[in-house]
């Protein structure tokens, strides 16, 4: 990503957060980051595309991390561990993006909303597939409905943006470890939980 593109995104995040999407013009953005309209339109077709990119950045991150977890680990409990770590870390890496997303997502144009929703659905499908495979292998409690379990995990973690502070008493990885401990204690079978707690991945969470 070019320095100017990153600078435009950073300025827009601050301005959208302070004034709202409709309260900010392209002129406001280019003045804030000390560039020209030509510089802006070289990287973005419109302010609408810029809002889409803000949304897409963090959604693409968690989706890529989920796919990577599937490639790197052949056990559902370890895939889920890595997916949860990345899902929590996104609130530190892209905190401003997520705040703007939750504040301004109603202004996303339909064509961009479709693209974002496709990635969100893809992530949910991967998570649900991991849960289902974990149940088939006896790692995740079979009596838990996969769809409700999926939504419960996402609902729990997605609320992080409401209270997480970068300068808070706990690091993002410590928060991720707490989430994983709570979720795994409820999801895993006794044998799988014991195996996980004895694993190297569990040791990295301490």
Question: How does this structure look, described?
Answer:
This protein is 74% helix and 0% strand. The chain is built from 11 helices and no strands.
Short description:
Residues 2-62 form the HTH tetR-type domain. The chain has 206 residues and is mostly helical.
CATH architecture of the largest domain: Orthogonal Bundle
User: Uncertain spans, ≥5 residues at pLDDT below 50?
Assistant: none
- CATH homologous superfamily designation of the largest domain: Tetracycline Repressor, domain 2
Rg, rounded, reads 19 Å
Mean pLDDT: 92
Order of helices and strands: HHHHHHHHHHH
Helix share of residues?
over 70%
Instruction: Indicate how many domains the architecture comprises.
Output: 2
Sheet with the most strands, sense and barrel status: none
Strand content: under 5%
Q: Helix segment count?
A: 11
By DSSP, the count of extended strands is 0
Structural class: mainly alpha
- The assembly state of the depicted protein chains is single chain
CATH domain class name of the largest domain: Mainly Alpha
GO molecular function: DNA binding
DNA-binding region: 25-44
Domain HTH tetR-type: 2-62
InterPro entries: Homeodomain-like_sf, HTH-type_Tx_Regulator, HTH_TetR, KstR2_TetR_C, Tet_transcr_reg_TetR-rel_C_sf
Main attributes of the structure:
single chain; 206 residues; mainly alpha; Arc Repressor Mutant, subunit A; Tetracycline Repressor, domain 2; 2 domains; elongated
């Amino acid at each position: 990503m070019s320095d100017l593109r990153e600078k435009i995104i950073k300025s827009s995040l601050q301005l959208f957060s302070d004034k709202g999407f409709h309260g900010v013009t392209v002129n406001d953005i280019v003045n804030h980051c000390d560039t020209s309209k030509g510089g802006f339109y070289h990287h973005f077709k419109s302010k609408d595309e810029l809002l889409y990119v803000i949304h897409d950045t963090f959604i693409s991150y968690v989706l890529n991390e989920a796919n990577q977890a599937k490639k790197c680990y052949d056990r559902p409990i370890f895939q889920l561990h890595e997916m949860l770590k990345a899902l929590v870390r996104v609130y530190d890496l892209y905190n401003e993006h997520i705040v703007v997303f939750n504040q301004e997502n109603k202004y996303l144009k339909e064509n961009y909303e479709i693209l974002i929703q496709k990635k969100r659905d893809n992530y949910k499908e991967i998570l649900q597939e991991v849960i289902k495979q974990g149940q088939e292998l006896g790692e995740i409690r079979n009596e838990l409905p996969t769809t409700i379990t999926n939504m419960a995990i996402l609902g729990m973690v997605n609320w992080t943006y409401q209270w997480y502070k970068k300068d808070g008493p706990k690091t993002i990885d410590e928060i991720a470890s707490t989430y994983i401990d709570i979720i795994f204690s409820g999801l895993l079978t006794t044998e799988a939980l014991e195996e996980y707690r004895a694993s190297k991945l569990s040791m990295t969470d301490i």
